[in-house]
Specification:
Structural class: alpha+beta
Helix content: 25-40%
Number of strands: 6
Order of helices and strands: EEEEHHHEEH
Strand content: 15-25%
């Protein structure tokens, strides 16, 4: 039985309606929990996420940062930072045509889309311990690559539907340096982001 999946959009560093003019701050590091994860190096200021992304020939700007977490079972799970990119031209057009209030609806759709994709990706990722792993860094890299690929696969159709419904081009991607994997204990209380660590808008 799955434990709850968390994806907190409330710790955003930028609102969609202001993404074309305000700078983006660094993603906040995730504190290491009591249960031993496979990595000791969550995101730091030296591992800042890219501010832009090229998708389908268009440059998307980072507009939001979310913390997410999911358990595969009682023992295994993942938490980390997830980045939302959007086309600034689409945002300005939608603001002119429909106003800014519609972006609140977009945020709910984005959160639901990412939450579902994260759980699906976590279920598909092999989080079993590898007794033949050369180092913890190698394990971390393999798990991050696998989770990222699974997340992109699971969210692709949803992103396409979102763009068709809203006319807003977006992308949602994990930030690999922030990912923490659990292999021996995955408690919902450990996965919940610490609100005291969340940056203010």
């Amino acid at each position: 039985m799955h434990k709850p999946t968390y994806l907190l959009i409330a710790i955003s560093l930028l609102t969609l309606t202001a993404c074309t003019s305000q700078p983006v701050k660094d993603a906040q590091p995730v504190p290491a929990p009591a249960a031993a994860p496979t990595t000791n190096t969550p995101a730091t200021s030296e591992q800042s996420p890219p501010l832009t992304e090229l998708k389908n020939g268009k440059t998307l700007n980072m507009v939001r940062v979310m913390d997410g977490a999911a358990c595969k079972n009682d023992l295994q799970g993942v938490k980390g930072t997830f980045l939302v990119y959007a086309n600034p031209d689409d945002i300005e057009r939608i603001k002119r045509e429909k106003g800014t209030q519609i972006f609140a609806d977009f945020e709910v759709k984005i959160q639901n889309l990412a939450t579902e994709a994260l759980q699906t990706a976590t279920d598909a990722t092999n989080l079993a311990e590898d007794p033949f792993a050369i180092s913890a860094q190698v394990v971390q890299q393999k798990l991050a690559n696998q989770l990222t690929a699974n997340f992109q696969d699971s969210i692709a159709a949803g992103l396409q539907r979102f763009q068709q419904d809203t006319t807003l081009s977006i992308d949602i991607v994990p930030f690999p340096p922030s990912l923490i994997f659990y292999q021996k204990d995955c408690e919902a209380t450990q996965l919940e982001p610490d609100e005291s660590q969340a940056p203010q808008k």
